[in-house]
Structures are given as C-alpha cells and as structure tokens.
Amino acid sequence: MDWKGRDVISVRDFSKEDIEFVLKVAERLEEELKEKGSLDYARGKILATLFFEPSTRTRLSFESAMYRLGGSVIGFSSASSTSVKKGESLADTIKTVEQYSDVIVIRHPMEGAARLAAEVAEVPVINAGDGSNQHPTQTLLDLYTMKRAFGRIDGLTIGLLGDLKYGRTVHSLAEALAFYDVELYLISPELLRMPKHIIGELREKGLEVHETTDLEDVIPELDVLYVTRIQRERFPDEEEYLKVKGSYQVNLSVLKNAKERLRVMHPLPRVDEIHPEVDKSEHALYFRQVFSGVPVRMTLLGLTLGVL
Amino acid sequence: MPELKVEVIPEGTVIDHIPSGKWLKVIEILGLTKPNGGTLLIASNVPSKKLGRKDIVKVEGRYLSEEEVNKIALIAPLATVNIVRDYRIVEKFNVEIPDEIVGILRCPNPNCVSNHEHVTPKFRVESREPLKLRCHYCERTVEGDDILGNI
Lengths: 308, 151
Fold this sequence. Notes:
The complex is a heterodimer. By secondary structure, chain A is α/β, with parallel strands linked by helices.
C-alpha cells in the first residue's frame, strides 16, 4: 500500500483496508518502541505543527511521535504569533512552511482548512482538527485502543455516550465503526441525540444501531463505553443541564452492573462525566487511549513520509 | 407557439423551460454575459404548460455542450436544450445534474474555509432525488432551499 505523500484529512477518505493497515503498522511500531526505547526512521526529517488554535494534547502527542521516530519538530501553537495576524492567507502560510518541512500537521478553527492546506502543499498534510468537522487521527487512535484492548473490533458492542449531536469525535468514530461488524448503542439526552442523517447512513451500511436516553439500562450489554463531554452551553437553562449531567456520570455504582470486560474510553479532557474513582478500576481505558495516540501518529507520520 | 415571440435563430443553442425569472442567472453561470459571448435572445415570463411561466434563452452562433449546460441544472432542473443548425433542431437533450458542482454555489456554512480563503467552492452530488450535495471542504451536506439560496 503506497502511503508516501498521502494526506490524512478525513475518515471519509479511508477504506477499511487503509484503517486495518494503519492499525497493524502502529502495533508493530509500538512493540519496536518498547524494545528499543526510540527509533530512527525519520532521522533528518522535519515536522511542522501549525496550530492555529490551541490544543496542547494533540500537539504534544504529534511532537512526541515525531521525536520518537527520530525526527525534529518546528511549529507554532497559536495563530496570534504568526503572520496570519498580519492578514496572510492560509495558502501562503502553507506554501511558506512547506519550504521548511517534510510533513505538516495542521489544526485550524475553520472547517475544510486541512483539505485546502493539502491541495496547496506538495508535502503531506495531516489534519489535527478542522473546526467542528474532522479529527481523523483521534478516530484511528480510538480504533487502535479498542483493537489492542480486545484483540479485535468485530463483534464488540459499543456505547457512545454524551453529546452525540454536536460531537465531532463520536460522528467520525461511528462512521469508521460502520466498517466493522459491531452493535452500537447511542446514549444521550433527548436534546443531544445523534443527527438522523448520520444514524441513517450507519444503518444503510448495515450497522445495528439502538438509541436510548438511559445509561443504566444498557450498561450490562456493553464491551466499550465511549464517554464524551456534555457542554453546559448546549442547554437552555441551568436546571436542565444539571439534571442531565447527573444522570450521565460514569462512576463505580453505575459500573456495578457492567460486564467485567467493559472498558471505558474518553477522548479527554474530562470534566466530571467520569468520576476519578473509576481511574483505578480495570474498566478505565482512557489513559491507555492517550498513550495510543503516539504509535498511531508515529505510523501516520512515518507512512506519509515514506520512511517505514 | 410562444417561441415565435422571439426571433428564430439560424444557428446556435436554445435553452427552454428555465424557471421564470432565472434567465439572468443562467447566462451568468454559462459565461454568456461577456461581450464575445455571442448574440443572446431572451424571452422571460412566457406562458408554459409545464411550468406556468418560463424563460427562454437563445444563444446565436454557439453550440453549448451537454457538459456546459449541465451547470445550470441546479437552478433549472427541467430545462431542455435544442441545438439548431440551419433553422432546424438537430439535437435535443435535457439538463442533468453533474457529479460535481464547481464554482456555482457558495457553501452555506459560514465557518467553511471556502468562505474565507481564495478558493473555488466545490460540491459532490450525494443524491439527486432529493438533491443533496456535500461540500468538498467542510464536508457538510446542503439540501433544499439552502442550495437555491446560495447560488
């Protein structure tokens, strides 16, 4: 599979074979990294991280991945310190930065910015979040985490919990899960249900999808519970928000009825949707999920650079 | 025969069954407003069995290809096209929505990069009936009035 020079912009661009290939290479790199401590596939290569809006976690994860591959990193972490502030177009910024680097990672507040950057740039571009649209490396690391934890994705029963209406992460994840033979439970307050057209697409692709508002009801069914944050500003009044917030908190008492093998995931940062008491339980997979970001991003950097 | 209200052309293209009032948009999309675009004969608000009222555009001396005319499918989905040679219709076809819509429609998402940077908006046709487009940049879908309102 030729990945050299390929851009990573949207889950929509991937086939199941692409996803499986990335997960396989990531597994290999993770093992190699464990064995050797650091690798040198990307020696002499430079990654430019262009973060037009701040995201410490994603940026650090990409930077760590590039360093662990033996490469170097340049970049900025907010648009205010760049010529964008002087009115430079995105296309010009990209054309300039690619003269200094071999691969570009971009996060931008506007939807479609990464696609545009990829059209302008000769070097590969990886999308680290474009507004409310896509964040494909998050989706890949989520799938990788599941695969590592269970040895497979097919056959899993997966619950997506929280803001399913606006949540970019859960939309992309659900789209990617449609490649697999999984059963999906969509658990959210009435107000934040997953948009009908997305559910329609998932069902069209053959996914078994159930919608519910009740977490405790379905928790005994699940192998994976993927939790996302419910934001206060989505609710018309404080009282309604507090009511909803309370009934969707994952704590040890809620997990009492869960299968022993249930694993709880979260893209982080969390606020109080998962109680810290869960952290030490066997169910907590969210910090392992953060770790997965590194081998998956190493894979994408290495493959697009053509050095693996 | 409402067509007779406008002079018959010897050579060229007749675009019929344009929704009433849309002729200007049609000639803009087809790039016929330029001075070298050939002579245009316009009939607007003509009684029509199919549409109630319709517009007709006749382009003298130019033969428009199906691919060119398909660009107007978003605003004139029922339009029919007649190619005229020596005063006779030699070819007839209906417009069809192309697979990709380039540069005609603005993305209704205000936060789409195509509304802020110097790029040509581009949409992929996801479904024709009902018409559903997906923005190449922000990946949002556009349907119904949002399509017409942004042409």
